[in-house]
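User: Please write out a complete single-protein record containing the residue sequence and its fold in token form, without commentary.

AI:
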Amino acid sequence: MSELQHSLPPGFFTRHTATALMAQSDCQLALHGRLTAPVVYDCASDKYLPICWADAFKMIANQLNALDRPGQAVFHTGGRIGSEVTATIQGMLAGDVRVFIGLGDNFIAAAGNAEQARQGLAQCDLTVHVATRLARAHLAHGRNALILPLPQATPTSSKLFFDVRDSQIVVD
């Protein structure tokens, strides 16, 4: 099995704080392995802990249902630096974007100003990153945060692979 096909070892997130993982490069993080199970951020320990899919979806649903208006949620799927990313960050910093869901992309890499993007994400009530491999952007979190694995097709699986890069959805 190649280095890029193995899964994260069991207990990976319980052995590392988010702060310690942020010190690693995206390449180092990716080499740890594929994401295989959902995790939720625990601010008391600064670690991501296991969460079942049902509870992760309930957390997302509760946060989305608590919004005053649909435009307070952003679904980011693109990797291009542009006005959409800039507007999303400005909306986060102003408190207009309360839920951020990043689908399979490195939002911070797409931002012109990485520190401003991290600050914006920190202002969100919920951040959700859906990806196959861990990246530093996935560790930048809001008050509540989830990292969800993106299903990936394998020769022995019936799961479908899909690519969500290069687009962004704002629910309004």
User: Anything to note?
Assistant: The CA atoms of residues 81 and 110 lie 5 Å apart. Residues 12-170 form a domain with the Rossmann fold fold (CATH 3.40.50.740). The chain is about 35% helix and 20% strand. The chain has one domain: 12-170.
